[in-house]
């Protein structure tokens, strides 16, 4: 089940799964409008809709990943006596997670310390990620049309406000290409401008700059191919970077800065990442951060620290919890889940 404002409308059907969309839109309306009244009404109407779907499907368990759509789904699951697992991706659980935690049969979290503000039973699993093992670095660069040798900087903002990152790349690009190749994921709106900048480069530099509007299946190649990642601090970005031992320069999303700084704190404390505030991040800051690519010792230490924090098989740990609930058997121990999540995926 999904809502009317999430990415699921495009992602889930494309992956071959059925998606039922609830009437719920969201409760994020800021400016007074018709939605100020309509959104709570949609939320209330989504509860019987979710309950009807659960009665029709008769599931053995429900997995919820937060967001406002989880409120009617978990309420319906509780009413239908269907066990549920809630996975919380941010270090500081969001409002919908806080609101629905007591409805869940169990909680799974990505970060140390998140369970402190949630109900038991709560388990540290890490963030489920795509498979990243066994990808050849040289082959990955070839598929992305990048040079096989030399340093590579990956600039990636995820789904969160990439304009600041794009402006920094635009201002720094000529100097940046003196020291590294750049794989730049721009987002759709900025892609045409990035391509114009690429075409304006001298031919010898053009091959070193490769902008993409987005990467989906190819994102695994990008992570393996890169030497340094500059981007936001969503839990998936951090988890995938750690899984391949990729050092990070984190620029927290400004409208969720406390959440994203908290997400990155474990990697920062471990020596795997540095943080630059969004308001301080510009072309000069990007050039300064790229100096890390000239320090092989620092990169190696950051890479080792990043990999030490990884839970590349977090999906297995979450699946084990979910299957335990579905089969009505005892939940696994925390030590067992830690072992599962840290194994090579």
Please give a quick description of this structure.
With 345 residues, the chain is α/β, with parallel strands linked by helices. Helices cover 46% and strands 11% of the residues.
Describe the structure.
This protein is of the alpha/beta class and 345 residues long. It contains 15 helices and ten strands. It has helices at 8-14, 34-57, 70-79, 95-100, 137-143, 163-176, 188-200, 203-206, 219-225, 235-243, 257-270, 283-290, 296-308, 314-326, 334-342; strands at 62-64, 84-88, 106-109, 122-124, 152-156, 181-185, 209-212, 228-231, 248-250, 273-275. It has a six-stranded parallel beta sheet with strand order 7-6-5-8-9-10, with helices on both faces. It has a four-stranded parallel beta sheet with strand order 1-2-3-4, sandwiched between helices. Strand 8 (228-231), helix 10 (235-243) and strand 9 (248-250) form a beta-alpha-beta unit. Helix 2 (34-57) packs across helix 3, helix 6 packs across helix 12 and helix 14 (314-326) crosses helix 15 (334-342). It is globular, with a radius of gyration of 21 Å. The model has no long low-confidence stretch (mean pLDDT 92).
